[in-house]
User: Fold this.
Amino acid sequence: MERPILYLAITNHGFGHATRMASVAATIQKLCPEVLLILVTTAPRWLLECYIEGDFIYRPRAFDLGVVQTDSLTMDKVATLEKLLDIKKYQNSLIASEVNFIRQNRVNLILADIPFLAPGFAKGANIPCWMMSNFGWDFIYRDWGGEFTAVADWISDWYSKCDRLFRLPFHEPMHAFHNITDVGLTGGSPHYSADDLRSLWGITAPVEKTILLTFGGLGLQQIPYENLRRFPDWQFIVFDRSAPDLPNIVKISDRKYRPVDFMPICGRVVSKPGYSTFSEATILSVPIVTMPRADFAEATFIVEGITNYNRHQIITPSDFFQGTWDFLHELPQLPEQSQPIAKDGNEAIAKAVLNYLQTK
Assistant:
């Protein structure tokens, strides 16, 4: 029997899409090691290797861009529009080149999160395209109006050609898709024991005074680190290599460690609104501190998701950037929903993919 081959196309924006797709890919590989994974993304290979233990083919290609950003909160809409129009102009050659690769490599199925041209690759190669996400880029751009409306229409049209969508929690309606399967939360699992992490990184503060500050792959330049001097008996875990050398900051410089690895030893995660961080924290029942983002339409649904299903603190940007961080002395609020959220997204998507591949 030929090896089943799965082509995983990932949005070229930050690290969140890459880590949630890599979590699903790792589950597929554990359940069925003979599946050959082709990960198509400009996210760095080392990031994917933090999630996927076995072999995979890495194809560094970008078919979309998300939003051009200087850091995790600052967007450049002019540059974003320019690059989107460029993709539209060259879409036929982008599609032709991937169709050629997919045919040569005898790919059986595309799973995409959530580059809009992926259904075009599938149609050209005569195989199905399945997608997974909690939002589409058409939803983000449509919210910006003006010239982005026509771009959103173009993207919605591509999404409508997708054969099946696995809709993740904390989602917008995703109206462009016709065949929707709702699934539970996705994400990575911690790789290390709490005791090993504490001894290796010198973390001695109790859990309730250990805080993870994480702002995704793009980081955040203006974190007011000076505020941390007000919490001398607390410890703050950061992945920001440019953070100051304060005695209560623990800088994680080794790339094999991920934010999810540290979540079980933290009393709270302080983060921008982002699905992957929120999902992993909610799976592990670690409270989230975050601030709303009026300029990114997806953020409303993500913040609503943790308000409903995780202990949380919603603070204002001025609390974060200009305040004294007194919010750390307050207890997080309880989730508004009494029913827990499903946490089996990795397995649900992996099993559906394997069921399909095993019939080919």
Q: What stands out?
A: DSSP finds 13 helices and 15 strands in the chain. The radius of gyration is 20 Å. The first helix runs from residue 16 to 31. Residues 28 and 353 are 8 Å apart (CA to CA).
